[in-house]
Write a structure and sequence with these properties.
The protein is an alpha+beta fold. It has five helices and 13 strands. The protein has a seven-stranded antiparallel β-sheet. The longest helix is centred in the N-terminal third of the chain and has 15 residues. Pfam families: PhyH (PF05721). Keywords: Dioxygenase, Oxidoreductase. One of its GO terms (molecular function) is iron ion binding.
Length: 257
């Protein structure tokens, strides 16, 4: 029998609120191993070329370093990641949340270096994606460092998953991060210890403050959706930056202002 990670109450909370906290998805020893791999990406020991970009381009003040480092498809460069504990446990949990047909759609790293202090603007992931027929999706956001309000933990708007996608626009430079109108007054923040994570739905409004501390805020993100919807995306040339890295567009005209 496959291991069950979640209670019925947790699944109901996810469906009603659009997000869920899961504690200790990886162990302290596993955290250190993931940090080593992550740092090899940040230092460019692992060179990902155009798969690396600044998600905060046009939002941060620094002209000499990345405001928010985004690395798409790390598992393309470190193949063993797919079979390591985080990917495997998050996949199992995503199947409990959205269905047994869930598979990994893509993975990415998003790092907020010390004192970069650049927000990730309010948005809904669905605004970045194709308008697929089956909207089920679960994104897992793993904290490798303590995630706090001051270094950029996640904020969510409870129940926004049950409403429409708000109009989105580019937050900074065209081709950079998207944003929509929302405020912290609508949301709740989720601070995490290293090794714990959140799951959220594609329509859940979320954001994070900038990192105003002297410590790192390394996050590892996985996205899951039904296998047939992944096939639907790929048949239409949409691969979340695998072959067109840095090409961010509003995928659905309905989401534009």
């Amino acid at each position: 029998m496959n291991k069950k990670y979640l209670s019925a109450e947790q699944i109901a909370f996810f469906n009603a609120n659009g997000y869920l906290t899961v504690e200790d998805i990886i162990t302290p020893d596993e955290i250190e191993h993931y940090k080593d791999i992550y740092n090899d990406f940040l230092s460019k020991k692992i060179d990902v070329g155009a798969n690396r970009s600044d998600l905060g381009d046009g939002l941060g003040k620094s002209k000499t370093r990345e405001s928010i480092t985004q690395i798409m498809w790390p598992s393309d460069f470190v193949k063993e990641l797919i079979d390591m504990p985080f990917h495997q446990r998050a996949l199992a949990i995503s199947r409990e949340l959205i269905g047994d047909d869930a598979e990994m759609d893509f993975d990415m790293l998003i790092n907020k270096a010390p004192n970069t202090n650049t927000i990730t603007p309010w948005h809904q992931d669905e605004a970045y994606w194709l308008n697929v027929p089956d909207k089920r999706a679960a994104s897992c956001w793993l904290a490798l460092d303590e995630a706090t309000v001051d270094n950029g933990c996640m904020w969510f708007v409870p129940g926004s998953n049950l409403k429409e996608v708000r109009p989105h626009r580019f937050a900074g430079k065209e081709g950079g991060a998207l944003t929509c109108n929302a405020t912290e007054n609508e949301g709740v923040y989720i601070e995490l210890k290293p090794g714990s994570c959140t799951f959220h739905q594609g329509r859940t409004l979320h954001y994070s403050r900038g990192n105003s501390t002297h410590t790192e805020r390394r996050a590892f993100i996985l996205n899951f959706r039904p296998a047939e919807m992944i096939k639907y995306e790929r048949e239409r040339g949409f691969d979340h930056g695998r072959n067109n890295a840095g090409d961010r567009k509003l995928k659905n005209d309905d989401f534009k202002d």
